[in-house]
Amino acid sequence: GGARGRGVSPGPVPGGGHHAGVSPGQGWSCRAVLGEGHQRTVRRVAWSPCGSYLASASFDATTCIWKKQEDGFECVTTLEGHENEVKSVAWAPSGTLLATCSRDKSVWVWEVDEEEEYECVSVLNSHTQDVKHVVWHPNQELLASASYDDTVKLYHEEEDDWVCCATLEGHESTVWSVAFDRSGERLASCSDDKTVRIWRQYKPGNEEGVACSGTDPTWKCVCNLSGYHSRTIYDVAWCHLTGALATACGDDAIRVFEESASSEPQQPTFSLAAHVPRAHSQDVNCVAWNPKEPGLLASCSDDGDIAFWRYQRPEVC
Amino acid sequence: MASPFSGVLQLTDLDDYIGPSQECIKPVKVEKKPGKAAAKIRIEADGSYFQINQDGGAQKLEKAKITLNDCLACSGCITSAESVLITQQSHEELCKMLTLNKTAAPDERKLVVVSVSPQSRASLAARCKMGVLETAKKLTAFFKSLGVHYVFDTTFSRNFSLLESQREFVKRFRKQSEDKKALPMLASACPGWICYAEKTHGSFIIPYISTTKSPQQVMGSLIKGYFAEQQHLTPNQIYHVTVMPCYDKKLEASRPDFFNQEYQTRDVDCVITTGEVLKLLEQEGVSLSDVDPAPLDTTLSGAAEEELTSHSGGGSGGYLEHVYKYAAKELFGIQVDTIQYKPLKNKDFQEVTLEKEGVVLLQFALAYGFRNIQNLVQKLKRGKSPYHYIEVMACPSGCLNGGGQIKLDSESSKDQLQQVERLYESLKTTIPEENWTVKELYEQWLGGTESEKAAQALRTEYHAVERASTGFNIKW
């Protein structure tokens, strides 16, 4: 029994290095416990780009928006509408859009105005099963979602509504998470099929001759990392500072992959640069790179711990 | 295959997943024999299930069936397979019925009436590349060739829905200081919206919803009531079919509120979609444009000539327009000729404001599609809705874009919708108050606008659906 660490979200960090200390939680102190918002499991939390707001997605079918105050956090609004468990929430880089996804198979896009009023902008029913995760492109208003239906879908705004503009097929089982690289040209997805796949965007008129329909780019799988993980991969995180790819696995391990020096754009190759076999004593659910400090990785697990790691790229990779 | 029901309805109840604590409200009763061992089930090659008893004997197990009525009440469904949900209502069912009717004994034979919605007619007209009048006449001929006796237009019954809505609004407006839930009044013609509202927001939202019946159900009352009497028949001796632009109308027709207990008959026996009419035509090897037109049936509408008319205010019935114009006149003595719509966040959310000397007298809105319905209900819950009346429809772009309309792959859906809109708007519009037959029916048949009979025929109620505990206790 006990707590299960489900997600970590690196917000703007006031600086200072921390390492997985000998004494538990050295250097980290709990600043607030937001206990009055949700009735069930809180599955995911996400900081807004400006750092003043925290969104929490819960199995009680709601998403709370918390505003940082001097002495804690205040729940400014509760987003309702999903039929059942909300699995993930993510803020767009612009800070005015938010996405949520649920076991009800839908992805919702919300907009917030200057008066902190949230309104539903679109309800997307493209997936045929539970949607596990949503993530925004680093610099475009492009949204990605991962689902129990084995696909990744991409969405953007067209006229006055949002539409699904691409479906990435290839995984043989539930896709648990997705992550864009710093440029947004590539996407990494991880799955219950124990692989991590790298997808690349091909715009219309691309020189590689990849066919596109209309004005929408096509996404193709350019790399399949298989044979490294022995269980379901629950999360993947792509460091925007160093390009390192970290995975959270059901075999209790954390792995880091690096792109090889000889890697080609159309056929990138990644190699396993680090492997911590017993990072936790149970399933690792989530990994997140610190956005400011290279090599600083946070992880959390079913064992109830949140761990911090210092990663350094090995000489030969 | 994607569900044909409106997006609003899809989100609320069709789900292949069943949590252990979710229960279908219609369990099949099984005779349980006392015994210690767990039941053994054997599946035969043909897919039938047999329970093997301890003594080796086998018992065939009954297939669990879900009817449309059950679907409406349940908050967790066993299967999302459409075939299960719509077996009782389809063009195949209609064909079966017509075939039976041909060979039935005279006292068992039913009078078959088909009521066609103007939205379906416009969609068929677009598909068959004809005008609406020609489509109506050829459709009449086609249905009659199959054994249908009368073909009517639900534009006629819509007069009642519009008049009742108008009157209801003014009543509610006048008592808003005593009744906190009098306003905003929310339109009630769309069953996708109604089912969603009953299930998801229940007793919170129901008081706001107009109690006026939809044109389909008013037609049901007219056909099984007035028309039956005129024909010297009992309600169950008429088989009433409607042709509608969506599948949600099938659910509306099977609501217990629209079931006549005395005669054990539904006000609307079968709903077929525009697409199903096309299937019927294909089945019969008929091209609608080649059919010889037949004169339109005017017995119900009492129209002197063969003329088709419509109502202004868009393809979903024109509720906002009619309520607005009537209210402006009745409440403030202002005559409104044209309405200015102001689009807000998206084209399916529009506002209309009546102002005089800088004071807002009336503020109405159109809210089509799930996202707009979401926002409207959330605003209502937070007490932040500025509207007096909202025309709510489940489908983006309204009824002309319903899930049962004909969609061609060859053209863009935008172009097709525009064509259907043009055809729908090609008819002359009339004002419900000026329809003599409607006036007469109110006076002669209903005994006045405030009578018990009028309430019975033209109004309905809604029922909050109690949600079974939805498996939130499960650890994921």
From TrEMBL, chain A:
Annotated GO biological process: iron-sulfur cluster assembly
Keyword NAD found: no
Lineage top rank: taxon: Eukaryota
Keyword entries, A-Z: Repeat, WD repeat
Subunit-level organization: Component of the CIA complex. Interacts with CIAO2A and forms a complex with CIAO2B and MMS19; the interactions with CIAO2A and CIAO2B are mutually exclusive. Interacts with CHD1L, ERCC2, IREB2 and POLD1. Component of the MMXD complex, which includes CIAO1, ERCC2, CIAO2B, MMS19 and SLC25A5. Interacts with WT1. Interacts with CIAO3. Interacts (via LYR motif) with HSC20.
Family label: Belongs to the WD repeat CIA1 family.
Job description of the protein: Key component of the cytosolic iron-sulfur protein assembly (CIA) complex, a multiprotein complex that mediates the incorporation of iron-sulfur cluster into extramitochondrial Fe/S proteins. As a CIA complex component, interacts specifically with CIAO2A or CIAO2B and MMS19 to assist different branches of iron-sulfur protein assembly, depending of its interactors. The complex CIAO1:CIAO2B:MMS19 binds to and facilitates the assembly of most cytosolic-nuclear Fe/S proteins. CIAO1:CIAO2A specifically matures ACO1 and stabilizes IREB2.
Name of the protein: Probable cytosolic iron-sulfur protein assembly protein CIAO1
Organism: Otus sunia (Oriental scops-owl)
From TrEMBL, chain B:
InterPro entries named among the record's database cross-references: Cytosolic_Fe-S_CAF, Fe_hydrogenase, Fe_hydrogenase_lsu_C, Fe_hydrogenase_ssu
Coiled coil: none
GO MF terms, alphabetically ordered: 4 iron, 4 sulfur cluster binding; metal ion binding
A Pfam family assignment: Fe_hyd_SSU
Signal sequence, renumbered to the chain: none
Keyword Metal-binding found: yes
Family as reported in the entry's similarity comment: Belongs to the NARF family.
Source organism of this protein record: Otus sunia
Domain Iron hydrogenase small subunit: 410-466
PANTHER family cross-referenced by the UniProt entry: NITRATE, FORMATE, IRON DEHYDROGENASE
Keywords: 4Fe-4S, Iron, Iron-sulfur, Metal-binding
Protein name per its UniProtKB record: Nuclear prelamin A recognition factor-like protein
Gene3D superfamilies: 3.40.50.1780, Fe-only Hydrogenase (Larger Subunit), Chain L, domain 3 (3.40.950.10)
SUPFAM superfamilies (UniProt xref): Fe-only hydrogenase
Organism superkingdom: Eukaryota
UniProt key word Lipoprotein: no
